[in-house]
Amino acid sequence: MADPTGFLSTPRQTAPRRPVDVRISDWREVHGRMRRGDLERQAGRCMDCGIPFCHGGCPLGNLIPEWNDLTWRRHWRDAAARLHATNNFPEFTGLLCPAPCESACVLGINADPVAIKQVEIEIVDRAWAEGWVTSQPPSAAARAAGRPAAVVGSGPAGLAAAQQLTRAGHAVTVFERDDQPGGLLRYGIPAFKMEKWRLDRRLGQMRAEGTEIRCGVHAGVDVSAADLRAGYRAIVLAGGARVPRGLPVPGAGLAGIHQAMEYLPLANRAAAGGSAAAGGTGVVGEPPVSARGRHVVIIGGGDTGADCLGTALRQGAASVTQLEIMPRPPRARPDGQPWPTYPMIYRVSSAHEEGGERVYAVSTQEFLADESGRVRALRLADVDLAGGRITVRADTERELACDLVLLAMGFTGAEDSALLAGLGVSLTDRGAVRRDDRFAAEVPGVFVAGDMGRGQSLIVWAIAEGRSAAAAADRYLAGETALPAAIGASAGPLRLGGR
Q: Does residue 496 form part of some domain?
């Protein structure tokens, strides 16, 4: 235990967010940096528990008490090594993960939990600044024994699988159908949550290690499933859960109604075009779907909806309203979601601080058109939740004016594509690619990682699955593996009654 009284004497502290009136005028990350001494004291709040439940909260099995102790003792380089021992991309999780590890922190039973995410991002940022993060190419002997392997998809699961397999000595090619790699990290996550130079820096490390990344190649279309089977001894499918959930109500096909994953990639591309760091012009262009001057309604109260909110505000929306069908959650952990589970509580993201209105317990009944066929309003009603069923409350219907609607209600599963048919693998009734607990699909040599096999989930689960699927593929290719497997495919988050 680093500081025996740290959890008693030091209150929880995180990095300050930039002022709202400043940050909504640009696309830079909203968070600032902490002073090194303050961060070290935050790490000293870790109690080095006899049973560190943060390990169970984190599917990667991050060695949280160890790197907290090393940070408090100012052994930053050793802390960075322990951080990278279980996580290929700690800056991604340090910025984007909702931190189920903090919900499972023992200190959180009766006090504010350790600021685990904050310590994580500060460690990795310093590691990069000091030059401690370098490429780790495999040895000549490992390369000689390696086999060709393909990874389809370059989101966090695909990148983690590719890096692990490359380091094991295999000749890995990543196929990405977009023009640049990164998946949702590139085009789904706004830059104000994570600037893209962080992603590009990791991609540079992977290329230096020997991973080949081929963009603009749609697996199953531009390269057939037969060609993939012929050219690669193992294939890891990591294409994500990309089928968006629709809203089947009258008027859903009107102009001005878009899926979040149609709107956000266009906004991210425009923002990247104005980023000097990305080689842009310095002027953010207007995307084909823009919130500028519009009255925006976002349907869906989760993280994707918040991303749409922050994006719309930066584009100059006239107003933004975010609708959620569920009741407003409580501010404190409810009795039915005790420690160490991840509670559904009222949270305020950086985007919610910036503006807009949040409306709970409402359901959209119909979209209404103007004379040109564009959405001009929606008709909504209050709802009640009882016994797990949602019912519309009588005499509560009213109109809400809007001329841009963004659907952010999640995803139903993986695309039923020509690639899957060509490989001979199928989808479950939940829309995930069928696999066993060792990440193996129905045909030998094909493995499934991330949201494509799990369904819509968190970035930390995607990285854990990518690492674990890589270990399974390595065992298939080499007969044995030294790669760590963080989880099995059937693992789930901490919940009442066990995992």
A: no
Residue 145, sorted as left (phi over 0), alpha (psi -120 to 50) or beta, turns out to be alpha
**Cα 397 to Cα 408: distance, rounded to the nearest angstrom:** 22
Q: Are residues 43 and 147 in the same domain?
A: no
Q: Which of 498, 471, 476 is nearest to 486 (CA)?
A: 471
Give the model's pLDDT for residue 388.
Answer: 87
**Residue listed under structure tokens 């460690």:** 123
Identify whether 269 is part of a domain.
no
Q: Where are the alpha helices (DSSP H) in 168-220?
A: 184-187, 196-209
Mean pLDDT over 209-214 rounds to 98
User: Which of 390, 409, 428 is a domain's end point?
Assistant: 409
Percent pLDDT > 90 in the chain is 94
Q: Is the pLDDT of residue 271 over 70?
A: yes
Could you list the residue range(s) of the whole structural domain that residue 341 is in?
248-260+277-409
In this structure, how many other beta carbons lie within 10 angstroms of the beta carbon of residue 9? 11
Q: Cβ distance 147 to 138 under 8 Å? A: no
Query: What pLDDT is attached to residue 392?
Result: 97
Average pLDDT over residues 190-214: 98
The tokens describing 358, both together, are 């949040």
Whether residue 163 is found in the same domain as residue 285: no
Q: Residue 122: is it exposed, middle or buried by C-beta count within 10 angstroms (0-12/13-18/19+)?
A: buried
Q: What is the pLDDT of residues 373-420, one digit of tens each?
A: 999 999 999 999 998 899 999 999 999 999 999 999 999 999 999 999
Contacts of residue 176, Cβ cutoff 8 Å, sequence gap at least 6: 153, 154, 158, 183, 213, 214, 215, 216, 217
Q: Are residues 227 and 368 in the same domain?
A: no
Half-sphere exposure at residue 450, Cβ-oriented, CA atoms within 13 angstroms: 29
The alpha carbon of 186 is separated from its chain's Cα centroid by a whole number of angstroms, namely: 11
